[in-house]
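Suppose a colleague, Dr. K., hands you the sequence of a protein chain of 87 amino acids and asks what its three-dimensional shape might be. Before reaching for any lab equipment, you can write down a predicted structure in C-alpha cell form. Begin with the sequence itself:
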Amino acid sequence: MAGGWARDGAVQDQIDDTVSDAVKAARARIPIGEGLEECEDCGEPIPKARRKALPSARTCVNCQSERDASIVSVGINRRGSKDSQLR
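The predicted structure, expressed as C-alpha cells, is then:
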C-alpha cells in the first residue's frame, strides 16, 4: 500500500531499481580481458589462487582492497523524505 500520491507498488519499484543499479555498478567493476601475473599498481606477484579464481585479475588483493575502499557511491536518492535529502 503506497502512501500520499504514490501508486501501489511504488516502494517495491524503488527497491528493485536500487538493487538493479547496484548490480550494474558491480558488474562494471569486474575486470575484463587478460589478467596479469604481477600487480599493475605495486608490481608484486598476484597469487596463483587469485589468478585462478579471477582470471582477469590485474591487481593483488591489497591493491584491489585499496581501490575498492576509494569507491564513493553516488546514487540517485529515490527516497522522498526530507531527512534522506539532508544526508
